[in-house]
TrEMBL record:
It is found in: Cytoplasm. Its main location: cytoplasm. InterPro entries: G6P_Isomerase, G6P_Isomerase_C, Phosphoglucose_isomerase_CS, SIS_dom_sf, SIS_PGI_1, SIS_PGI_2. Its EC number is 5.3.1.9. This is Glucose-6-phosphate isomerase. The keyword Isomerase applies. It comes from Undibacterium curvum. It catalyses: alpha-D-glucose 6-phosphate = beta-D-fructose 6-phosphate. NCBIfam families: PRK00179.1 (NF001211). Transmembrane segments: none annotated.
Length: 548
């Protein structure tokens, strides 16, 4: 089905005609109930999408589009464990990882819970031993430093969550995340760490990812230089992987290998043992609280009618902005320092899932899919790129994300922080009219000539749409809900765009080429004739200047 040819899509094009030139100022002025109408809450997590450029009719048509695309059916197929990731012949069952009841999941016939529970138990055991100081290093010391070596989904999720929940962090443990192949990431860390008190978690679903393998090998060499004995590896290395044999080959004993499964996508793996560093930081009970938050969002996503369904509404708003209002990018603006990694996490979640131009059927998509996702801590952005959001003339929908109370409170900080967050979304939405700017300038006593010169610079067009996501506080439960909200949002968008959101073939070509270029970088001139002129010129430069 070409969705753009359907009556539902055509109705939305009519809405677009109506709303394209309607200002948010007027939408608010004409509807005193706008906030009530266009906001929704689940267990304290509130989404306010009243500052999106929609009206009730457009939302109704968007919901019809979701029904037409069979969102509910696809959702049920995912939860039933069907192999909806058909290009890799895999089920998509990260929701099993946060299934907290003792019932089978996804079904009695296909129950994955015994394996999930066994790994949770293994995690709990490790977490308790490390946190209590019972886990000892090769010289008998308690662990003080945990280094997660991983990249992509094996880095971004745990890094986001462990920073987000730093208020709950064990007082005697420090956490580090190493992903970059550049030794400037690992080397300064190794300089300050003590091998006797350092525990490495090598997180890699495939256990073949080059960046992770090289960092893990270097960490292993560093440990061995101090410990001298192979048995020390068992005291300082844990692996999280779906390829236990490869972790075993690396020298990690079986009891230190935590399994994940092919039905857990890398960018959906935080809830598995990939989250071990988070569990070590906040304790296994805290980690399970985060799983419960995600499960609460799962149940809501499965059961709530579409018009009250938070992930569905978020997805539809994004589709509206991308496909009808023409937005090409979207900004994620967390205001809490502790969720500073949210933009990076969502970049992978959204762009690796839906950054595609081919449908499930192998046909070119009939419309544009995922916008470019970017972002930064809100207040930092205010003093940097917000100028462009306010007056740059681009349509850039924003997600403002903030918790009502601070997780690391100091007197005098939180109220101004919240004021800034709310001020920005209001300024973006409502702007400042020429009339308002003129009045301000003349009240400041400017001459008519000065006023005329300054006036064009003081006008804010406004009408920049945003959603504000509020949480009471940054706790494990709320964080679990927040991340699962975005996961399901991405799923719904993928269904409507008819994309398989769970593969990522687009990352392969670069990996292949990097492997092919390695000998040339290392000096093997036999390859030179096969290189394009640019690559060969750049390699010549490396040979002149690099020490590899
Ligand atoms: O966990 P790993 O197998 O090491 O994979 C790490 C990451 O690299 C891949 O190239 C994918 O793009 C990501 O989806 C994945 O999360």
């Amino acid at each position: 089905m070409n969705i753009t040819q359907t009556p539902e899509w055509q109705a939305l094009l009519q809405d677009q005609q109506r709303l394209e030139h309607t200002h948010l100022r007027d939408l608010f002025a004409n509807d005193a109930q706008r906030f009530q109408r266009f906001s929704a809450e689940l267990d304290g997590l509130l989404i306010d999408y009243s500052k999106q450029r929609v009206d009730a009719e457009a939302v109704r048509h968007l919901l019809s589009l979701a029904r037409l695309a069979n969102v509910e059916e696809w959702r049920d197929r995912m939860f039933a464990g069907e192999k909806i990731n058909f290009s890799e012949d895999r089920a998509v069952l990260h929701t099993a990882l946060r299934h907290m009841e003792f019932s089978p999941f996804p079904s009695a016939e296909l129950d994955v819970m015994p394996q999930v529970r066994a790994v949770r138990k293994q995690m709990r055991d490790i977490v308790e031993r490390v946190r209590s100081g019972l886990w000892r290093g090769f010289k008998g010391d308690a662990i003080q430093n945990v280094v997660n070596i991983g990249i992509g989904g094996s880095d971004l999720g745990p890094k986001l969550a462990s920073r987000a929940l730093s208020a709950y962090q064990h007082p005697n443990l420090n956490f580090f995340y190493v992903s970059n192949l550049d030794s400037a990431h690992l080397a300064p860390l190794l300089e300050k760490l003590d091998p006797r008190t350092t525990l490495f978690i090598v997180a890699s679903k495939t256990f073949t990812t080059q960046e992770t393998s090289i960092n893990a090998q270097t960490a292993r060499t560093w440990l061995m230089a101090a410990a001298m004995e192979e048995w020390a590896i068992a005291k300082h290395f844990i692996a999280v992987t779906s390829s236990p044999a490869k972790a075993h080959e690396f020298g990690i004993p079986d009891e230190n290998i935590l399994q994940i499964w092919d039905w857990v996508g890398g960018r959906y793996s935080l809830w598995s043992a990939v989250g071990l560093s988070v569990a070590l930081s906040i304790g296994m009970n805290g980690f399970e609280r985060m799983l419960q938050g995600a499960q609460t969002m799962d149940s809501h996503f499965r059961e709530a009618p579409l018009e009250k369904n938070l992930p569905v509404l978020m997805a539809l708003i994004s589709i509206w902005n991308t496909n009808f209002l023409g937005a090409e990018t979207t900004a994620i603006l967390p205001y809490n320092e502790s969720i500073r990694h949210l933009p990076a996490f969502l970049q992978q979640l959204e762009m690796e899932s839906n950054g595609k131009t081919v449908s499930r059927d192998g046909e070119p998509l009939s419309c544009r899919a995922n916008p470019i996702v970017w972002g930064e801590i809100g207040v930092n952005g205010q003093h940097a790129f917000f100028q462009l959001l306010h007056q740059g003339g681009w349509l850039i929908p924003c997600d403002f994300v903030v918790a009502a109370s601070s997780d690391h409170p100091l007197p005098g900080h939180q109220a101004p922080l919240l004021a800034n967050c709310l001020a920005q979304s209001a300024a973006l939405a409502f702007g400042k009219t020429e009339q308002q700017a003129r009045e301000e300038l003349s009240q400041a006593g400017l001459s008519e000539a000065q006023l005329a010169r300054l006036l064009p610079h003081k006008v804010f067009a406004g009408n920049q749409p945003s959603t504000t996501i509020l949480m009471p506080s940054l706790d494990p439960f709320q964080l679990g809900m927040l991340i699962a909200l975005y996961e399901h949002k991405v799923f719904v968008q993928g269904v409507i765009w008819s994309i398989n959101s769970f593969d990522q073939w687009g990352v392969e070509l670069g990996k292949q080429l990097a492997n092919r270029l390695l000998p040339a970088i290392l000096g093997d001139q036999a390859f030179d004739a096969q290189l394009d002129a640019s690559t060969s010129g750049l390699i010549a430069y490396f040979r002149r200047h690099g020490h590899v």
